[in-house]
TrEMBL record:
Residues 66-182 form the Phosphatidic acid phosphatase type 2/haloperoxidase domain. Keywords: Membrane, Transmembrane, Transmembrane helix. This is Undecaprenyl-diphosphatase. The lineage of its organism: Bacteria, Bacillati, Actinomycetota, Actinomycetes, Propionibacteriales. The chain crosses the membrane at residues 42-62, 69-91, 111-131, 138-158, 170-190. It comes from Raineyella antarctica. Gene3D superfamilies: Phosphatidic acid phosphatase type 2/haloperoxidase. The keyword Glycoprotein does not apply. InterPro entries: PAP2/HPO, PAP2/HPO_sf. It comes from the Bacteria.
Length: 207
């Protein structure tokens, strides 16, 4: 987390990928442009929260146990939300729309680094892999999740709403923070919370 933050400050004053951002924005035409803009809107904060709740609900229904669903939603939230704090601290400007051949509408005026969209998508995939790790669906989830991450990452830079380094930093953030949240929050803290253990809760209310 500290490394991602420090690198963000360096990139803020030395945007080494500014030229690459302009070149990639050149692909924002026709079907590709419509697709990448749609991807950006689908994974915006509001829909992202809804996606998390829906997936958590499905996990609850399938597993018939609220704890895996809670663990999934917790890993997503605790990994995703702090990245916005880093964004406020670093406050790297978005790619300059005056330099882009194709402007994204509406123009995004908040900070650029790291990408909240990318942090969310990567941690969504990672959290699903945690849930499915002991099932036959693990390989498929990894494959489809990788494709989703690549598509969203390319969409963000083609839209020119983020620099390529914003996207890469977001991938690093989620791949390192999410496992830490899993170990500390799910493996260490959740088993100690009696109200999350139906048997323990039943014992607690008995005289």
């Amino acid at each position: 987390m500290l490394l991602v933050t420090v690198v963000g400050f360096l990139l803020k004053y030395f945007p080494v990928d500014a030229g690459l951002a302009v070149w990639l924005n050149g692909f924002h035409v026709g079907f590709v442009g419509a697709l990448t803009s749609g991807v950006y809107h689908v994974f915006s904060p509001g829909p992202a929260i809804l996606i998390t709740l829906v997936v958590a609900g499905i996990i609850w229904l399938v597993r018939k146990d609220f704890r895996p669903a809670l663990a999934f939603a917790g890993v997503v939230a605790v990994t995703w939300v702090p990245s916005d704090i880093v964004k406020l601290i670093v406050h790297r400007p978005r790619p300059d729309v005056a330099l882009q051949p194709h402007h994204f509408v509406p123009v995004q005026v908040d900070a650029s680094y790291p990408s909240g969209h990318m942090v969310f998508v990567v941690v969504l995939v990672v959290a699903l892999v945690f849930v499915l790790r002991d099932t036959r669906w693990l390989g498929l989830s990894v494959a489809l999740g990788t494709v989703l991450v690549v598509v969203v990452g390319l969409s963000l830079v083609i839209d020119a709403v983020h620099f390529p380094t914003d996207v890469l930093a977001s991938v690093v953030w989620s791949l390192t923070v999410a496992p830490a949240v899993r170990v500390i929050g799910v493996d260490m803290i959740m088993p100690r919370l009696r109200f999350l253990d139906p048997k323990g809760a039943k014992r607690a209310i008995q005289p």
